[in-house]
Amino acid sequence: MSELLVNTIKHTGGTTGMTIDSSGRVLKSVLPAWRVQRGADQTISSTGIQNIELDTSNDATKQCFLQGGVTLNAGSPYGVVVPVTGLYHVGFVFRSNGFGSPTTSQYLQTVLRINNAVNHSQTSVMYAADNDANSATQGIDLYKTHAGSSTYQLSANDELNMITNGQGDSTYVIAGGGFMYGYLIG
Fold first, then answer.
1. What are the tens digits of pLDDT across the range 124-147?
2. Half-sphere exposure of 135 (CA within 13 A, CB side)
3. Label partner for 94 (CA 20 to 30 A): which of 64, 84, 109, 145?
4. Which residue from 170, 62, 46, 137 is spatially nearest to 54, judged by alpha carbons?
5. What is the pLDDT of residues 149-177, one digit of tens each?
6. What is the Cα–Cα distance from 92 to 82, expressed in whole angstroms?
């Protein structure tokens, strides 16, 4: 039997990669991870594809953070940029307010994209949708939560962004507080 007694694992350049505390918990402070959100309501005033403007990144009061080299692009398409190639778990939760009109053939999608890829391509990876022939008169238009999560193989400098795509109603709100999160699995 052999034992390895260690408190810290470092790269040869001196960067601490992992620590083990006295209770045996393994901590990885440089693990790429994020939770970013829409800080305030975003009013959408046209149909079609619109970027969800993720604007809160390092605000501990809102449980938002960027770590391990992850960055937030503060301009269009307002995405998170991952620093290293690997397997990532990613998810989102956004609420729409006031979508729906007494028309037919309407829908609202909230889509996670990789590198701002076009809808329904292999890299427009996850979406949540609300569609109904007459959502306003059926009372489902006031508040709708769109959420999803999955695991993706990403490359260094890939950007993940969120869009909304509404057809059949041109005025609605993406509520403040909606968020996207993710972390490197390995």
1. 556 555 655 555 555 445 678 888
2. 22
3. 84
4. 62
5. 999 999 999 999 999 888 777 788 999 99
6. 16
